[in-house]
């Protein structure tokens, strides 16, 4: 059953509405199973860092862990947990007032362990403050919606120079034989990307990737905490191999990373 709590209490509609009306805050999303989370420390680091950036406030890591622990199912079933940090008292007229951030914690059933490969199209778009995982999702949702209405599954973002940066809600990696290449450019520093990059034993690099030159790669994948490693089957007119053996190796590498107890 889904949970929605604000600072450990059932979500009050008035305090919850404040987030939608002002749309100012940040979050992290993680997958928890049997009371454990891969990259938990990195998720907490992100929340602390972004809280300083948006609110000039220090976030209590212990409190965040307690709030996550409180919403996990007793049977250890896998769930996706989102921790959103926002201030219900801030308003549109004076968002520069001293902030007292609250913790909105929600859960939903975890996605399938091995979802189907994605077919994506590119779109020229750069998120505001791309280094922050903030709640300003309008542009991303709009581009994802337009892509889906056109028959694609999702959208891959490119900058003003036509270089790949990130997916709508995921980071992306490309495979040139056994070499792993990450895009270079303004994007969200993903927890799953960091974990996988640190654990991968093969050669890897980070470099500018023109969207019109992706046919040099044999395979590509999306990564985020919700699904782990998800193959891409196509980017625009470029067909990729979603069954490339290196993708199975990457998925096994990620699943082999020890999860931390909440």
Q: What descriptive keywords fit this protein?
A:
262 residues, 7-stranded antiparallel sheet, alpha+beta, globular
Describe what this molecule looks like in 3D.
The longest helix has 16 residues. The radius of gyration is 19 Å and the shape is globular. It has 6 helices and 16 strands. Strands 7, 8, 9, 10, 11, 12, 13, 14 and 15 form a 9-stranded mixed sheet that branches. A 7-stranded antiparallel sheet has the order 2-1-6-5-3-4-16. It has 262 residues and is of the alpha+beta class. The mean pLDDT is 95.
Percentage of residues in DSSP E strands: 25-35%
- Main beta sheet strand tally, sense and closure: 9 strands, mixed
Q: Count helical runs.
A: 6
Mean pLDDT rating: 95
Give a quick rundown of the structure.
This protein has 262 residues and is an alpha+beta fold.
List the helices and strands and how they pair.
Elements: E1 4-6, E2 9-10, H1 13-22, E3 26-33, E4 36-37, H2 40-55, H3 61-71, E5 79-86, E6 102-109, E7 118-124, H4 138-149, E8 154-158, E9 164-167, E10 171-176, E11 179-183, H5 191-199, E12 204-207, E13 219-224, E14 228-235, E15 238-239, H6 245-255, E16 260-261
Parallel strand pairs: 7-8, 7-14, 11-12
Antiparallel strand pairs: 1-2, 1-6, 3-4, 3-5, 4-16, 5-6, 8-9, 10-11, 10-13, 13-14, 14-15
């Amino acid at each position: 059953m889904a949970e929605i709590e604000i600072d450990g209490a059932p979500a009050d509609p008035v305090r919850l509405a404040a987030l939608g009306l002002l749309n100012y805050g940040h979050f992290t999303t993680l997958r928890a199973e049997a009371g454990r989370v891969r990259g938990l420390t990195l998720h907490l680091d992100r929340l602390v860092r972004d809280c300083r950036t948006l609110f000039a406030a220090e976030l209590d890591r212990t409190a965040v862990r307690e709030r996550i622990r409180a919403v996990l199912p007793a049977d250890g079933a896998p769930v996706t947990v989102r921790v959103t940090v926002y201030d219900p008292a801030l308003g549109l007229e004076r968002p520069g007032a001293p902030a007292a951030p609250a913790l909105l914690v929600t859960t939903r059933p975890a996605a399938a362990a091995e979802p189907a490969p994605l077919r994506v199209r590119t779109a020229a778009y750069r998120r505001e403050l791309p280094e922050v995982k903030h709640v300003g999702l309008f542009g991303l949702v709009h581009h994802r919606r337009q892509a889906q209405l056109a028959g694609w599954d999702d959208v891959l973002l490119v900058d003003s120079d036509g270089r790949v940066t990130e997916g709508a809600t995921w980071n992306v990696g490309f495979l040139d034989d056994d070499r792993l290449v990450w895009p270079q450019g303004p994007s969200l520093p993903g927890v799953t990307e960091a974990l996988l990059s640190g654990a991968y034993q093969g050669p890897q690099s980070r470099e500018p990737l023109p969207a019109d030159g992706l046919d040099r790669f044999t395979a590509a994948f999306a990564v985020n905490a919700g699904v782990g490693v998800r193959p891409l089957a196509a980017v625009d007119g470029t067909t990729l191999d979603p069954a490339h053996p290196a993708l199975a190796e990457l998925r096994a590498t990620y699943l082999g990373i020890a999860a931390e107890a909440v």
